[in-house]
Amino acid sequence: MKQTSVIFFSILVFLLALILFQTIFWAFGIVLIFLITPALLGFFWNFYRSSLFWVVLKPAFKLLLPAALAISFYSLIFLPIEFYITEISLKTPKLPSFVGISILLSLILLLTLVKWQGVFKTRSSYFTLFFFLFVSTLFYLGYRKEKLAREYLPKIYKLSPQWGVQGQIIKIEGVNFGPTFKPGTVGVDGEEMPIKFWSEKLVIAEQPIPKNFGKVDIHIIRNDGVISNGMRFQIRDPNELEN
């Protein structure tokens, strides 16, 4: 590639990366990868058949490539599932750490069984590999951006009990409710519940005299005004319980 072409495409890559990531740091990083990648591909293409090359790099290559691919598959498959469970459906604050580690190690072990020297016989196979790694990296960066945007929001994971009458004590479990010395409020059906206890992960409130009976949403309103997800709660008529 001629020098003028390299400069032209480098500028295009820089502008595209700047638009995508909105930071000069990431834009320069992408340009650096763009400039280094052809040299690395040329090196592998010219010397991968050399016996000395494989004696030195074959052990590292056998472990490095499966690890990189395992991380890519992990980013494209496991992380979206984990994000849905913890941030969208709010089943749990986080999955046990051994789950992700076990899946990642299993992927690495599985991919080490593949004979990669036989797979990468053409230059196009190397371009496919780098493209796959590049796409998975972009996906991971997008995941991290969304994860960080939601990570510190107040979230309700559990109500106990899930129904109540006047004077009922209700435990609200979750994360990021705010410190004890800066309590927020608990909103239900346009009213506020009297607070008995407040902490980062647990709020204990009392069901006030209701305006109406039926199913409503309970929200945690943090001290800074940020509102949590709504958790379904049923306000029951005490007369129904007597019957």
Helices and strands in order:
Layout (H helix, E strand, L loop, with lengths): L2 H19 L2 H24 L3 H38 L8 H16 L3 H4 L3 H29 L3 E6 L2 E2 L4 E7 L9 E4 L2 E2 L2 E4 L3 E5 L7 E8 L9 E5 L2 H5 L1
Parallel strand pairs: 2-9
Antiparallel strand pairs: 1-3, 3-7, 4-5, 4-8, 6-7, 8-9
Helix pairs in contact: 1-2, 3-4, 3-6
Compact description:
With 243 residues, the chain is of the alpha+beta class. Helix content is 56%, strand content 18%. The radius of gyration is 27 Å and the shape is elongated.
Describe the structure.
The protein has helices spanning 3-21, 24-47, 51-88, 97-112, 116-119, 123-151, 238-242; strands at 155-160, 163-164, 169-175, 185-188, 191-192, 195-198, 202-206, 214-221, 231-235. The chain has 243 residues and is an alpha+beta fold. It folds into 2 domains: 3-151, no CATH class; 155-242, Immunoglobulins (Immunoglobulin-like, Sandwich), CATH 2.60.40.10. It has a 5-stranded mixed beta sheet with strand order 2-9-8-4-5, with no helix packed on it. The radius of gyration is 27 Å and the shape is elongated.
Order of helices and strands: HHHHHHEEEEEEEEEH
- Please state roughly what percent of the residues sit in beta strands, choosing from under 5%, 5-15%, 15-25%, 25-35%, 35-45% or over 45%: 15-25%
Whole-number mean pLDDT: 80
Q: What assembly state would you assign to the polypeptide chains in this entry?
A: single chain
Shape: elongated
Strand numbers in spatial order across the main sheet: 2-9-8-4-5
Helix content: 55-70%
